[in-house]
Amino acid sequence: MKKLLLITTLLASFVQPASIALAADLEPPPPPVDHLRPATYDWSGGYVGGWVGTACIDGTLTDNGALPSALTFENAGCGWKGGVLAGYNHQINNIVFGVEGDWGMSSSIVTNNEAGADYTFGLDSIATLRGRVGYAMDDTLLFLTAGGAWARGDVNSTVGGLADHLQSDHYGWTIGGGIEHAVTDQFRIKLDYLYTVLGDGHYGTPCGTCNVDVHWGTEQEVRLGMIWAF
Asked: What is the C-alpha to C-alpha distance for residues 145 and 130, in angstroms, rounded to an integer?
């Protein structure tokens, strides 16, 4: 009887560890860390960044002081622009609402060498404040945007006796759209298009003999932006 009890005890001591090891082998492994992360990118929050682009305007410049009558010249061309931006988004399901502001400046957009003209026109400053609404497809956002715009034009010219770099303000509106993509959680890139209409500007001060009006017409621009979200 004692011998049988001893044999049973020895067998149990071997079988129990083997059963525990077999049960451990049958348990599923823990899922990879990547599977525990949210599948959808979160667009909510603030961001800052910079942008560069090309812009084309189609307007006119009128020298009201020309004799015997006013002379109007074409004020149209294309140039480079660049600047900084900042904004904030709020996401509800797949819809993203936001507000964005930007500031920049340009190279000479217009160079007019017509007889009696001989001037360049660029932007000392340009800024917009726009609302945005978009549709998020995980880490990619398609959006529309619209809002107000302001620009300070710069005429460097001999037309109408203008002094170098005479400036005036233009006010108007802008509308456009684009696509934005999150490369990482913080770094995003975007490509957008803006159509801008600004009012006329009178370049008559401080030059006492100057009497020049710039009719802005329309501006179209394409911009590439780089964004840091936080």
From this structure: 6
**How many CB atoms sit inside 10 A of residue 46's CB?**
12
DSSP assignment of 147-201: EEEEEEEEEEE-GGGPPTTEEEEEEEEEEEEEEEEESSSSEEEEEEEEEEEE--E
Q: Which of these, 209, 221, 55, lies nearest to 122 by C-alpha position?
A: 55
For 14-139, where are the E strands, in sequence order? 45-63, 71-92, 95-106, 108-112, 119-137
In the chain, the amino acid numbered 136 is: A
Q: How far apart are CA 126 and CA 207, in angstroms?
A: 23
1's tokens? 């009887």
pLDDT in tens, 105-149: 998 899 888 877 778 899 989 999 999 999 999 999 999 999 999
d(CA 15, CA 11): 6
Residue 92: how many CB atoms within 10 A of its CB?
9
Q: Which residues of 158-189 are buried (b: 16+ CB within 10 A; e: fewer)?
A: ebbebeeebebebebebebbbebbbeeeeebe
Structure token pair of residue 51: 């942008």
